[in-house]
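Milestone 3.1: sequence recovery, worked example.
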């Protein structure tokens, strides 16, 4: 879920920066786009790190005692 969220944030930010050519008085859409792109990249990296750490962990219980 984190990887998908990161990709979505990055895409929305890229659309705001590169595809829209709208000027507003109260907010700079280019800056909002860059912030969303950075947040998306961070979320994507966190998702990859979490995926890799979960893959290395084993959740099974090992019972060494033989009956």
């Amino acid at each position: 879920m984190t990887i998908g969220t990161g990709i979505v944030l990055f895409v929305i930010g890229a659309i705001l920066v590169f595809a829209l050519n709208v000027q507003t008085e109260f907010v700079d859409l280019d800056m909002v786009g860059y912030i969303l792109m950075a947040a998306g990249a961070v979320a994507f990296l966190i998702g990859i790190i979490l995926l890799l750490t979960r893959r290395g962990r084993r959740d099974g219980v090992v019972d060494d005692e033989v009956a």
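The mean pLDDT is 88. The two ends are 43 Å apart (CA to CA).
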